[in-house]
């Protein structure tokens, strides 16, 4: 590995450079790998990009290079021949000169490949007088004789679109299906001539398109040809990443293929984002640039979270981070950590109890407390994380039960809600830190009113997919939990004390079975 970067951007078009600029300004170590062969290289200018109207594409990209370098980013010219995700979640990217670089995150902005109809002469004139996008080129060829080469069921739509820029438009059906009656009427009404028969080639005079030749020998004068291409995401050298592609269609016709991503460009491969035409074949320069900015900001935010968690882990290892700081950082990772549904064991064990006053310990984002309040309980819900409690309060407002829940922040090893309750629950009160669980559960037992119920649910061991079993960690049995409460003789009636299995999805979303345990006891009157 020749060097390691926080982010490697594969692709030096508008999307890739905009993402790299965003990341460089965020003080990230960024490398752009640019093939030097942009899709729009033959075009005379960039259009519909506010403030850059008519700028030659290579001038725009050169300016982007200067801006990225100004903020410390690096750019190399080359082709990616291989890319893979390593066991530690980082990436190794190999270039055609044999060099290799490492990266914590990847931004794929490789654009797409246009597949033109196999008509002689079209590829040679591509981007000059053989065009694909009226919004990119329509103004420049306005009022000229335009021919639309039909290659699919959208041919009539394309001809009507180009008619906006010229009243001299001819649709060559070529390999397109016969237009329906309604489309025929629209084309006739707009003065678009329709010519049947396949094309044999473009007619050129010197360095100029003058028309087309049909297979039957006829020649039709045209100054410009509009061609609908099949557009496929360019993924040369990236097979090792395992990126999936999908088909992008319009009205049932496949326009091409793209790499799916969320609104920020995050793909299904952890650590890989995508932007520009590689994920949206319809993007123009301005929208591709915007997508690059969004992806760059999302990648930076993802790195910020990872760095914060690493810092917390290091601080905890050094014994300087608090339990509250750990859980606040955990909740900052996502807008929602838990599902929002109540724990199944709570629903099963409490549904038969008459509602009264309940205390929930370790309430998190409020799923259990909100369910209890919805069943008529008046709930005191305690958690160490202020972030979790604020989220839970918002959820309770939306559920219409806010007036039935008192949210309290407690480090239960140091402070405890006051009063006694008809139900006290502690479901999955585990923590990677040194939380005094036995002390907390003794406090929970002390808070149960005569005739009230204590419900404790917990894990019986690590899940099947957990690779670090940490033999130093002990998961108490329900009997051990009961004994740790230091119960007085005859003080409690044991209602349930057992292990049970439940279905839980693993990190890849696949259902698996996990063993948990439950202790349910009632304080005798």
Q: How would you summarize what this structure contains?
A:
It is built from twelve helices and 26 strands. It is of the alpha/beta class.
Topology:
Blueprint (H helix, E strand, L loop, with lengths): L2 E8 L3 H12 L4 E5 L22 H14 L3 E4 L2 E6 L5 E5 L4 E9 L3 E4 L14 E2 L2 H4 L8 E4 L5 H8 L6 E4 L8 H9 L3 E3 L3 E6 L4 E6 L4 E3 L2 E4 L2 E4 L12 E5 L2 E6 L13 E3 L10 H33 L5 H10 L11 H7 L6 E5 L5 H8 L3 E6 L2 H14 L5 E5 L11 E7 L9 H10 L1 E12 L18 H7 L7 E14 L5 E13 L2
Parallel strand pairs: 1-2, 1-6, 2-3, 6-19, 8-15, 9-10, 9-15, 10-11, 16-18, 20-21, 20-23, 21-22, 23-24
Antiparallel strand pairs: 4-5, 5-6, 7-16, 12-13, 13-14, 17-18, 24-26, 25-26
Helix pairs in contact: 1-2, 1-6, 4-5, 6-7
Distance between the termini: 71 Å
Low-confidence stretches: none
Radius of gyration computed on alpha carbons: 32 Å
Indicate the overall shape. Answer: elongated
Number of DSSP-assigned strands: 26
Helical content band = 25-40%
Total number of helical segments?
A: 12
Q: Please outline the major beta sheet.
A: 7 strands, mixed
The residue-averaged pLDDT reads: 90
Could you tell me the strand content as a percent range?
A: 25-35%
Structural class call reads alpha/beta
């Amino acid at each position: 590995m020749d060097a390691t970067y926080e982010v490697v951007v594969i692709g030096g078009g508008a999307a890739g450079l905009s993402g790299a600029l965003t990341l460089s300004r965020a003080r990230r170590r960024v490398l752009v790998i640019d093939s030097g062969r942009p899709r729009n290289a033959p075009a005379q200018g960039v259009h519909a990009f506010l403030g850059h109207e008519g700028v030659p594409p290579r001038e725009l990209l050169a300016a982007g290079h200067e801006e990225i370098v100004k903020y410390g980013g690096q750019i190399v010219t080359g082709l990616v021949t291989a890319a893979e995700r390593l066991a530690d979640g980082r990436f190794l990217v190999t270039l055609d000169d044999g060099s290799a670089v490492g990266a914590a995150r990847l931004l794929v902005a490789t654009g797409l490949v246009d597949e033109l109809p196999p008509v002689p002469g079209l590829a040679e004139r591509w981007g000059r007088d053989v065009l694909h996008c009226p919004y990119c080129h329509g103004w420049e060829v306005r009022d000229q004789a335009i021919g639309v080469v039909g290659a699919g069921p959208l041919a009539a739509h394309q001809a009507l679109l180009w008619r906006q820029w010229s009243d001299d438009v001819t649709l060559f059906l070529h390999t397109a299906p016969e237009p329906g009656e309604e489309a025929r009427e629209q084309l006739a009404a707009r003065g678009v001539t329709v010519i049947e028969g396949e094309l044999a080639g473009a007619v050129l005079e010197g360095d100029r398109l003058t028309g087309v030749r049909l297979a039957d020998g006829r020649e039709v004068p045209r100054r410009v040809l509009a061609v609908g291409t099949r557009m496929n995401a360019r993924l040369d050298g990236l097979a090792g990443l395992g990126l999936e592609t999908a088909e992008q269609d319009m009205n049932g016709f496949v326009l091409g293929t793209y790499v799916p991503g969320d609104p920020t460009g995050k793909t299904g491969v952890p650590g890989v984002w995508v932007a520009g035409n590689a994920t949206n074949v319809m993007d123009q320069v301005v929208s591709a640039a915007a997508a690059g900015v969004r992806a760059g900001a999302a990648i930076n935010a993802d790195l910020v979270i990872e760095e914060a968690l690493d810092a917390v882990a290091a601080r905890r290892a050094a014994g300087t981070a608090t339990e509250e700081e750990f859980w606040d950082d955990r909740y900052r990772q996502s807008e929602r950590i838990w599902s929002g549904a109540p724990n199944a064991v709570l629903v099963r064990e409490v549904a038969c109890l008459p509602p009264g006053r309940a205390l929930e310990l370790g309430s998190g984002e409020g799923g259990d407390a909100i369910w209890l309040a919805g069943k008529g309980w008046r709930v005191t819900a305690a958690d160490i994380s202020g972030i979790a409690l604020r989220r839970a309060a918002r959820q309770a407002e939306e559920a219409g039960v806010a007036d039935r829940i008192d949210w309290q922040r407690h480090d239960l090893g140091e402070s405890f809600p006051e009063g006694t309750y008809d139900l006290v629950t502690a479901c999955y009160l585990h923590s990677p830190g040194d939380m005094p669980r036995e002390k907390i559960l003794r406090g929970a037992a002390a808070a149960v009113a005569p005739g009230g119920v204590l419900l404790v649910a917990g894990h019986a061991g690590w899940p099947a997919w957990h690779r670090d079993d940490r033999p130093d960690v002990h998961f108490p049995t329900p009997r051990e939990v009961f004994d740790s409460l230091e119960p007085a003789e005859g003080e409690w009636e044991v209602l349930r004390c057992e292990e049970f299995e439940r279905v839980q999805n693993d990190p890849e979303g696949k259902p698996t079975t996990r063993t948990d345990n439950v202790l349910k006891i009632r304080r005798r009157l």
